[in-house]
Amino acid sequence: MSGTYVHGYRERESERLADQAGTLVELLHGDTSYPAGSTVLEAGCGVGAQTVTLAARSPRARITSVDVSAESVAAAGERLERAGLRNVDLIQADIFDLPFERHSFDHLFVCFVLEHLPEPATALERLAALVRPGGSVTVIEGDHGSAYFHPDSAAARAAIDCQVQLQAGAGGDALIGRRVYPLMVAAGLADVHVSPRMVYADASRPDLVDGFTRKTFTAMVEGVREPAIEAGLIEAGEFDAGVRDLHRTTEADGTFAYTFFKGTGTKA
Amino acid sequence: MSGTYVHGYRERESERLADQAGTLVELLHGDTSYPAGSTVLEAGCGVGAQTVTLAARSPRARITSVDVSAESVAAAGERLERAGLRNVDLIQADIFDLPFERHSFDHLFVCFVLEHLPEPATALERLAALVRPGGSVTVIEGDHGSAYFHPDSAAARAAIDCQVQLQAGAGGDALIGRRVYPLMVAAGLADVHVSPRMVYADASRPDLVDGFTRKTFTAMVEGVREPAIEAGLIEAGEFDAGVRDLHRTTEADGTFAYTFFKGTGTKA
Lengths: 268, 268
Hints:
The structure is a homodimer. By secondary structure, chain A is an alpha/beta fold.
């Protein structure tokens, strides 16, 4: 079941992540830039939604982006080519079986990956082993429990909770954002600092209403309709009412809030 | 029942609000400053927790702060005196029966007040009638549905929900933060802009853990223990477990998030 909604593996997901990346680039990545000559490992690049931003913002850094899916790596390659970016090496590999020595990289970047892993702190520690002492580690994750909206709706909350339960059933944690700080500390990183990045949309911010509330968050919830109903987590009628209520929050008097958590730490 | 937990009416509440104001001053009020010679109405000043900040940040504005409770007004007066602030006129009066003509003030400031009112948009419209056309209106409210934490806890969520239910039973709305935008628009204000102010506490921010998670938010939830149990909303054991779990979030691996919403608009 896990594969049916892991990010970036399907065409529609791919579009959604591009929308998301477009809307959220400044909010999530505006303060990430790696120096000329430094080496960066992006673990779990998916279809390259974040990779293009990373590469564009650090044009003289050398970025190695890895994903287990050959299809995603190919999509990421096309995206980088369209963007004219040449400072990224793409590798198709399991991020826990990488062909690199310890301390091979100056920096590690992990975005929307730990949420899918059963042992995120251990996973992060293993990835951080590839970073030289004194190098940096950046982690970005969302938290579906940070979503709230007006008008409030029990059906919408139930539909969102389907995604949380499906992700938990697949060994992940869709509420991981609030755990980024303890996870990074548990992974042995020093100087851990977490800053929340809240997306707040109301009618005075139509780009966010469309780009985030509608095309990112609500589209993601809609994407779990079939697996949620098949798993018996919800009745079709309630799910559909929930999705309608999420769309309702995009009207003139609606509001929507969601928070990402960005953590940085230093390899000891 | 309402009177038992309306802000600022009891000694302990008074201390809590002082803690809250001390921790949150910059976050909530750092961008509020009124020009020399302008007149400001603060509707519902309580014990003056916000008043001292307003007055100190706008030393040459003339502030009129009103509260219905004579006791609160007296406490606000002492607080202003201790702070050496002389640019505030304190008035004990019902904010809906004020001795002022329409268009008497340049600016209106309403903080943690609308959450207690059954018809917040109408209330705001009536208060805004006292502001001259072109003047500004500022509204600040919290949203208890914006609270989430690690470790997550159903008991803690249930204890928080008691406060939400009690406030709803008294005609208020503890989830009002997400509604600030539509309320200000419904009150006829122009150029409404709402900015969320998120408090995020983890062990790297010990002042916020102590000042906000423990002494502001958890203390507030603890404050509704008796009325919540009396009203049959929760069993004592579950409530106490919830409070313990909120304290648990203040440990080294815990995190806590809460968001206030600050709206500004122009009187048309």
